[in-house]
Write a sequence for this structure.
């Protein structure tokens, strides 16, 4: 067998209270796509951060092209031909694509920069790999998918031979995902090698040659993707059988819980992000709001939850006008909100888990007497949620929220919101960036809410999720409601068309 | 085998290293100026601790620093940077002095009234930047600096106009004994030192602020807003109200510092001076890692340096500026504590790796 381009042997990395990687071995052959599969918090990102020089392993060795190396930092990793496309892009928004790509290794010409030649080279690279990037466009003007390609180009510009993709599809629309797969195939055809960090089995099936599975920091095995079923891989990842379909009881539609009348909301740029939007959500149903990212979902949710003020129109919760109620009042009237951005809105990362679990109801008599926090009650509350919602935290309630994995942070938020026993649960991208096990779990809890007669407004960019869970589907495009149908009367293609702004008849 | 570092909180280690590096740099300065650093430090510390009187003076010097340090630390916990402790201190001192010079009451009542006046004066000077920040998003750094000068000129006008001293126009009349935080029992106990009731006010305030921040709903809300404003908003907290409240409390704390400075440590208030204790409060807070208990200890340490430097100056050739230089260097090191932490991490991994390699080698030998 040829010398593998990357070989990580017996890697171990420990963080306080947790072994993130325990004796993990992976090999990457030239010209292949190796998928790294694992639940959130399984240690995939840690392993790749070690390869990229962000962490030093406590134990184990790394060999690049058969030569043992000690990777000191990302620059060193770059020099070894290893490039990483991060989940959260690291780009300067008011710079052009060229300026972003050359950042840190600017081509000089006298005292100035030779951006023209850089721009030319980027154009060539872009055409060569079918990336279709305009080197002179500014980052703030291009789509998320395009920004990701800039990150890829950055690595190619630095002559990377191994590209690590960290959850690359988490931020992309279905079309952009298809494009990305094409780009990856081009990269492989040109002799690059790829490590794909993901928990989406569909993608692994579509693109990867081999797949290494990690569970809770341990190496489970490496399998040939073409010979292994999705179910088998899911089982390896989670450690038990996983059901992919969501089981739901029959609809028991109850009374109107949320009523939105002719709502208009300004967005951050000072134009109407939501226009004349009307929608009802009933008890006992999950209403899925589908739409391409940036079509007014954020503004709508912020107006419903009280984070933004309403320009025009009214909102009723259980028959009461809450259009200008405070956030606290809405929460007390039975609204719960799983926010789109868990780290920005949902959690105080510097607080412990238990302190985060009382973020909305700390003022309850349950949790304080005469203004003094009742630590015992707070601890009990967190223990119950951690237990009920399977939040894995190294030191229980005292664990800093920052040190939880993304999936566990999300489960903590979901647990907190559902534990308020809300009449209306607004769940925005509740499974964004999560693994199969967590997704299955969160979906189940959302359906439970519905089955117990509560209303759920599910806002998601993932059409699969909307199709699987919803009883009715509303589609938003350019801030307007373009369609409202019963879920069983529509297929994925029709929904896709509606998301693009083509209206369909409405249903009650 | 794993290396177990003793369980000292990170912040304490970092602070101690900052202090050590600062002292080390001071020693270098002394050497460069041709003096003996051992003699210098001996006199510096003796100057602050040598007898009970000097011990008392160290406490008295530290008292306003405890309060301004708390002021900065408290605002900081809420995500606000209070540069205005000087002005708040000055206003607190002015209000307390005004009450002390005009109101006639039995001492305990008068002192309580002066305390309330100091709280009110400082609080007002914190309230204004708080409101500006909450309503118009005016950055508190700019607003508090402006408020410093407002306080400076307010004192500049008020003192000569209403409380002019007997001999000098540039300072207020001496406050009567009855309006001073100094009490005979305490002064005698410390052999005629400046020490006064302010020390107790300072320590009690440290405890009070610690309790507020760690144990109460208010502290929970304020810290949440400081760590993540967006999440605080999401949780239904009134973030703007909390900004105003936090700045007001911070101002009040520095205002009380003014009471202890002008009606305890000193006996009158001068015009044309923006007290350095306010700015030192930033350093105290940094070195104390913004925690109330940390502030107490770092204020005492700064108090020691300040009260010892005069003695060092008298006994050696070392200029008193060296004392200030050392303080500045320590501030420098505590402000760059991130670097110190990074080095600590590096040392830890290095030790870990070495231990592992050793163990590995031993294992192979056995084979």
């Amino acid at each position: 067998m040829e010398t593998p381009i990357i070989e990580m042997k017996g890697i171990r990395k420990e963080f306080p209270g947790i072994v993130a990687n325990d004796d993990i071995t992976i090999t990457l052959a030239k010209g292949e796509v190796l998928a790294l599969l694992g639940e959130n918090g399984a240690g995939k990102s840690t392993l790749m951060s070690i390869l990229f020089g962000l962490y030093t392993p406590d134990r184990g060795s790394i060999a690049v092209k058969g030569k043992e190396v000690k990777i000191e930092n990302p620059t060193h990793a770059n020099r070894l031909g290893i490039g990483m496309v991060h989940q959260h892009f690291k780009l300067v928004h008011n710079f052009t694509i060229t300026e972003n790509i050359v950042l840190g290794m600017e081509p000089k010409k006298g005292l100035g920069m030779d951006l023209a030649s850089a721009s030319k080279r980027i154009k060539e690279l872009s055409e060569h790999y079918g990336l279709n990037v305009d080197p002179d466009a500014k980052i703030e003007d291009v789509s998320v998918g395009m920004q990701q390609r800039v990150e890829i180009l950055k690595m190619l510009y630095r002559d990377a031979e191994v590209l690590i993709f960290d959850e690359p599809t988490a931020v992309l629309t279905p079309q952009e995902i298809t494009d990305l797969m094409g780009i990856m195939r081009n990269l492989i055809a040109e002799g690059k090698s790829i490590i794909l960090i993901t928990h989406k089995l569909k993608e692994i099936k579509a693109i990867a040659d081999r797949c290494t599975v990690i569970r809770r920091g341990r190496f489970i095995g490496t399998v040939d993707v073409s010979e292994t079923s999705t179910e088998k891989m899911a089982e390896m990842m989670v450690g038990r059988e996983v059901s992919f379909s969501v089981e739901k009881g029959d609809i028991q539609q109850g009374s109107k819980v949320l009523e939105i009348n002719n709502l208009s909301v300004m967005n951050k740029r000072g134009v109407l992000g939501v226009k004349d939007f009307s929608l009802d959500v009933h008890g006992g149903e999950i209403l899925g709001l589908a739409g391409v990212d940036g079509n007014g979902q954020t503004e709508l949710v912020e107006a419903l939850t009280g984070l933004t003020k309403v320009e025009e129109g009214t909102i009723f919760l259980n028959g009461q006008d809450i259009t200008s109620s405070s956030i606290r009042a809405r929460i007390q009237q039975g609204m719960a909100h799983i926010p789109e951005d868990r780290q920005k809105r949902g959690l105080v990362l510097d607080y412990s888990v238990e302190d985060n679990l009382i973020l909305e109801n700390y003022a309850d008599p349950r949790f304080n007497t005469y203004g003094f926090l009742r630590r015992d009650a707070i601890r009990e509350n967190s223990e119950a949620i951690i237990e009920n919602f399977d939040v894995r935290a190294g030191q229980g309630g005292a664990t800093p929220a920052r040190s939880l994995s993304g999936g566990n942070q999300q489960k903590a938020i979901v647990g907190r919101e559902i534990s308020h026993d809300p009449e209306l649960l607004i769940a925005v991208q509740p499974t964004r960036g999560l693994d199969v096990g967590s997704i299955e779990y969160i979906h189940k809890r959302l359906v439970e809410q519905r089955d117990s007669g509560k209303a759920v407004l599910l806002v998601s960019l993932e059409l699969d999720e909307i199709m699987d869970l919803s009883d009715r589907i509303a589609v938003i495009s350019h801030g307007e409601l373009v369609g409202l149908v019963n879920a069983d009367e529509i297929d994925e293609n029709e929904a896709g068309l509606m998301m693009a702004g083509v209206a369909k008849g409405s249903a009650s | 085998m794993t290396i177990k570092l003793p369980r000292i909180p990170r912040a304490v280690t970092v602070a101690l290293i900052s202090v050590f590096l600062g002292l080390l740099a001071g020693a270098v300065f002394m050497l460069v100026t041709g003096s003996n650093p051992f003699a210098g430090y001996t006199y510096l510390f003796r100057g602050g601790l040598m007898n009970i009187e000097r011990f008392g003076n160290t406490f008295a010097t530290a008292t306003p620093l405890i309060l301004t340090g708390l002021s900065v630390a408290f605002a900081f916990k809420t995500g606000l940077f209070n540069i205005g402790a000087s002005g708040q201190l000055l206003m607190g001192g002015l209000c307390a002095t005004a009450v002390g010079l005009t109101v006639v009451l039995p001492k305990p009542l008068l002192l309580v009234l002066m305390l309330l006046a100091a709280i009110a004066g400082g609080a007002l000077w914190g309230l204004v930047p708080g409101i500006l920040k909450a309503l118009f998003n005016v950055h508190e750094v700019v607003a508090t600096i402006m408020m410093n000068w407002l306080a400076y000129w307010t004192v500049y006008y008020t003192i000569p106009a209403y409380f002019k001293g007997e001999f000098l126009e540039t300072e207020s009349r001496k406050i009567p004994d009855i309006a001073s935080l100094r009490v005979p029992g305490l002064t005698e106990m410390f052999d005629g030192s400046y020490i006064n009731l302010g020390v107790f006010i300072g320590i009690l305030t440290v405890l009070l602020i610690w309790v507020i921040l760690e144990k109460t709903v208010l502290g929970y809300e304020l810290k949440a807003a400081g760590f993540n404003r967006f999440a605080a908003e999401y949780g239904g907290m009134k973030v703007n109200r909390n900004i105003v409240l936090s700045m007001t409390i911070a101002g009040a704390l520095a205002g009380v510092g003014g009471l202890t400075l002008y009606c305890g440590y000193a006996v009158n208030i001068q015009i044309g001076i923006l007290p350095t204790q306010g700015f030192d409060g930033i350093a105290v807070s940094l070195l104390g890692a913004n925690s109330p208990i940390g502030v107490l200890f770092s204020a005492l340490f700064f108090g020691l340096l300040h009260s010892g430097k005069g003695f060092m100056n008298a006994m050696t050739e070392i200029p008193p500026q060296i004392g200030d230089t050392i303080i500045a260097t320590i501030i420098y090191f505590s402000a760059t504590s991130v670097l110190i932490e990074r080095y600590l991490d590096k040392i830890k991994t290095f030790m870990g790796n070495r231990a592992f390699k050793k163990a590995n080698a031993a294992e192979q030998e056995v084979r």
